[in-house]
């Protein structure tokens, strides 16, 4: 029996994945040179489809990395000479903060317990922090920072750079790239692809900053922003990239564009609404995130009265895979991914199965 | 008509690639959690097959990165506090050197023109250089450094670390890991897989050194050696890895082990012998590398009397793809990959086609 994955990444593969994979294999695209026109056309196609999908202006480059975690490092190298600032409310926002310390930057943080969210009004960014690091969707806790709050934060501190982790939510958040300097995601979440590719959307202003930093400090050697940007101008990458991942991402983005991103966003909200209604009304579950505006639309986290392992096992027996809680919440929570690869019907089926356990 | 790729990477995919890919897809392995026992078993299988294939002892970890270029950076971060030393005789050995400068290390080099090789006897490593960076197979020029010379170099300087770039030759070189501290390769060369995965073989001594360096300097944040090593002990990676690439690499390594690595090495040498005999005897071609012991067994580079674009076009019309020369030699050379994915019969066919042009 094939399983349906509601896990928050790696996740259910998008229904068209296999078709696109077959086209890739039949076209022998795994063997083409990454310095050929054929590759450059493939690369440009993916960038164009992502630009359309996410409404990314020409002031920003769309760059490919090995993973979104790599983006954390490259953004810190490129935008921070000395000090960064981080909103921390879960494991992944904490890792972004840890990366800054590991690069010997001075990392400030405003931290809240897992499950709590941030509004722009309450945030005070230290004077010398050059970059504000925010997580649109904290995969570990199911907290989202509303896009309007992210925009307000940048408007409050227009002279500081901002970086938005949308690893487990893109293409859901509708970011305004006239405000957002950096955003990044990986393909094994809402794009429904196998892992192994990260995408970094970055502005010309960051490029200028990286140039300045490089006069005095290292901005890294592998996939440093200056070299990535220069190669991207020519629809290439500095090193041999994950050509298969880039091809598949372009095809999935094209599929999303055919559906229309606003429809994808509406579907996401509709399915999220059903999931939250269910966990809030059923005795065996409750929402971990209590404030509605902070409830993630793409990763729904529920406390379980049964041990979560029993819930996971019970659902799996029906062919449905949900994620365990993260870290200290492993035994008492489940995480349900709500990505485009799982349909309204599959979501209703999951709700029925979870309700009957 | 399907093409046969004799290009030096991305290259011809290994004949069993499609079968393994289908198994991956059918098993829904693109959706499994990278923190599950199922993933850890997959990861361990690949490491075990590589350990067997390359004869890697337990003193060394086998780690996964986004590309071999990333390995350059991670090795420099981990083994060099202040100074590195590089043998440079082509574009890729030059990039390793450039990476060291970009990380603000002091990089020494001993440089020769493209096409020339190195022997241990002639090399003098500066006193304070901590790491010797050597390229077993310079993909840009088709020069190899004989394994015996690499071992001699380490024996001459036993207190310095050594890193061996075997990107476009592994599993051909039979390295003695009691001497070799670091070696690395990527999967889109002789392993016949799509690009997007690098492999770093690294010793416990490097781990100790990285710990010492970290007391004073940054050793990077993403895929830093301490975190990679700790995760590898548990058959995991710090970030979500290219699970598909790791799975396929394990299956191809298993196929290689079934054939026996000594047979693969013998086949490689037999095919290389045919290719060199041909280009040395035919008026339209000549070997770029003149000294036999420096002639790469896996990337054969030939000067062409015709413009190389005409040779490439003529071969392609017969379904055979060879690579162009690299950089300044683009118009006057061809590069022929001699990897396990192309058989003796296909090599003989290529020789016939090139001979008839």
TrEMBL record, chains A, B:
<feature type="domain" description="Aminotransferase class V">
    <location>
        <begin position="125"/>
        <end position="330"/>
    </location>
</feature>
<dbReference type="GO" id="GO:0008615">
    <property type="term" value="P:pyridoxine biosynthetic process"/>
</dbReference>
<dbReference type="InterPro" id="IPR015422">
    <property type="entry name" value="PyrdxlP-dep_Trfase_small"/>
</dbReference>
<dbReference type="InterPro" id="IPR015421">
    <property type="entry name" value="PyrdxlP-dep_Trfase_major"/>
</dbReference>
<dbReference type="Pfam" id="PF00266">
    <property type="entry name" value="Aminotran_5"/>
</dbReference>
<comment type="pathway">
    <text>Amino-acid biosynthesis; L-serine biosynthesis; L-serine from 3-phospho-D-glycerate: step 2/3.</text>
</comment>
<keyword id="KW-0718">Serine biosynthesis</keyword>
<dbReference type="GO" id="GO:0006564">
    <property type="term" value="P:L-serine biosynthetic process"/>
</dbReference>
<keyword id="KW-0028">Amino-acid biosynthesis</keyword>
<keyword id="KW-0664">Pyridoxine biosynthesis</keyword>
<keyword id="KW-0032">Aminotransferase</keyword>
<dbReference type="InterPro" id="IPR000192">
    <property type="entry name" value="Aminotrans_V_dom"/>
</dbReference>
<dbReference type="GO" id="GO:0019265">
    <property type="term" value="P:glycine biosynthetic process, by transamination of glyoxylate"/>
</dbReference>
<protein>
    <recommendedName>
        <fullName>phosphoserine transaminase</fullName>
        <ecNumber>2.6.1.52</ecNumber>
    </recommendedName>
</protein>
<keyword id="KW-0663">Pyridoxal phosphate</keyword>
<keyword id="KW-0963">Cytoplasm</keyword>
<dbReference type="GO" id="GO:0004648">
    <property type="term" value="F:O-phospho-L-serine:2-oxoglutarate aminotransferase activity"/>
</dbReference>
<dbReference type="GO" id="GO:0008453">
    <property type="term" value="F:alanine-glyoxylate transaminase activity"/>
</dbReference>
<dbReference type="GO" id="GO:0004760">
    <property type="term" value="F:L-serine-pyruvate transaminase activity"/>
</dbReference>
<dbReference type="InterPro" id="IPR022278">
    <property type="entry name" value="Pser_aminoTfrase"/>
</dbReference>
<keyword id="KW-0808">Transferase</keyword>
<comment type="similarity">
    <text>Belongs to the class-V pyridoxal-phosphate-dependent aminotransferase family. SerC subfamily.</text>
</comment>
<dbReference type="InterPro" id="IPR015424">
    <property type="entry name" value="PyrdxlP-dep_Trfase"/>
</dbReference>
